Amino acid sequence: MIRAKGKDQLSQRFMQTIFQSKCFDRLRQQEGEKFEDFILQHVEAIQGDFCEDNLGMTELERQQLINTVNVIVNSAGSVEFNLPLKRALEINFYGNLKMMQLAQQCKQLEIFIHVSTAYVNSNQFGEIKEQIYNEQSNILNYANMVYNRAEMMSEKEKLKLFNGLPNTYTFSKHLAEQMYKQLRPSQMALSIIRPSIVGCALREPEIGWIDSYASSAAVLLNSGNGMFKFFKCNPNMQSCHIPVDMFVDQVIAISAHDANRKQFKIYHSGCSDRNPNYLFWRVLDKEVKDFWTEHKAKKRISEPKVVTTNNQINLRLMQIQCLMMARLGVKIAQKIGNDESIKQSQINLKNIEKCIFLGNILKFFTQKEWIFKSSNMTPIINNLSESDQTFLSIDVSTVDWNVFFYIYNYGIQKYLLGENIQLKISHKQSHQNIDEKYEQNKRQAKNNMYVFIGLDFTPSYISFIQMISNVNLFCSQQKIHIQK
After folding, report:
1. 346 contacts 330 by C-beta, under 8 angstroms
2. How far is CA 214 from the centre of its chain?
3. Which of 29, 32, 54, 170 is 20–30 Å from 116 (CA)?
4. What region does 56 belong to: left with phi over 0, alpha with psi -120 to 50, or beta?
5. What integer is the mean pLDDT of 215-225?
6. Virtual CA dihedral for 432, 435, 437, 442, nearest 10 degrees?
7. Are 14 and 45 in contact (CB under 8 A)?
8. Per the omega criterion (within 30 degrees of 0), is the bond before 459 cis?
9. Cβ(407)–Cβ(208) under 8 Å?
10. Is the dihedral of CA 80, 81, 83, 87 positive or negative?
11. Could you tell me how many helices (H) and strands (E) the chain has, helices first?
12. What is the pLDDT of residues 7-24, one digit of tens each?
């Protein structure tokens, strides 16, 4: 489902979003001139809007989904941390409510998957179980009350309402989970998957593939290009990551496992429980500097060097010093410089302000540690057949975080900055070349029949592209039958 104004814009956005994505480079090369026809045979886009009545669909399109859809994977929503409360509820709660109302009418529905976030419980401490905490007795009444009062609330009242949650994003997603649990018909199989920090692709569709500046990618990019000079975090705490291709494989595996089970289940998708990652905050000091010094970005702002601190006073002193120097630079340029120097000094000041702003947004998450328990994933991992393991990589305990973060920096420079860079990890002690490591873990596909029936994706861009890509990658070695 794609938001668009009219069929022409729908077709245009679909072509631009899908056909031109680097995610499909390998498939594009494989199919050649038949690439577009291949995609159109497997994917059908419909016009819709999460916030409109009936999801913005025509009655004909809605009835088509009601009569034919077998699987709904819903990851639509806003990931902005600080949307106004009322707007966050309109998208992340009431938009999901409309999706649930559609699902309740679907006659052939076998599984409903809702993509949430692990941080809906970030107001808890220590181990976080795969359950809903602090559930309201009647979530619809509660959400309506909050929505009606949202614009009249003071900031103090909102903080009390959030009960320790850091922003409107986590709060609205927390309410959406409760809605799905309370409104789920007893015969519906509904599973919620909570990803932690979604990073670049480890293997599929291309090593390092990424198309979003969000979250940790923004930290690595701005550290590597020299914008970040300081960052508040606790380097002794772990950060919970999941490669995007592994997350999407988990969605596919959960969909197959839970279909028709008539149950409500929650899954965490991250590494903190199965393969703790204590590297991320530490790599900012050395590994990021080493990588971006060796692979210098074309539009680098300055030498990559980041000072990490967990001391608020030290952080504030560094912020004040950088701001003073940047503002002084602007004044000097305005007095004795030319137009180019004035422009550059203003850009430098704006970059410092962006750095401080981003650090303030993320500081809640960079100073705390959560262990997201993932016991519900264990039977799915253990019961995955040998042939399915050929295509689906769902066990995060197999990830080498040294290799992953090297790939992450590589992917940012190649796919986000669009620079020509060769993947080399020979200087990383005890690690093989990534291509060799991939080939060693890849198993020869068996000639099986896979059936994907009525997949309806209402996605965030990364999940949509990666999921469709995974389905299509089967085609070169498998006989696939797809029913609409």
Report:
1. yes
2. 8
3. 54
4. left
5. 87
6. -170
7. yes
8. no
9. yes
10. positive
11. 20, 13
12. 667 777 887 777 788 888
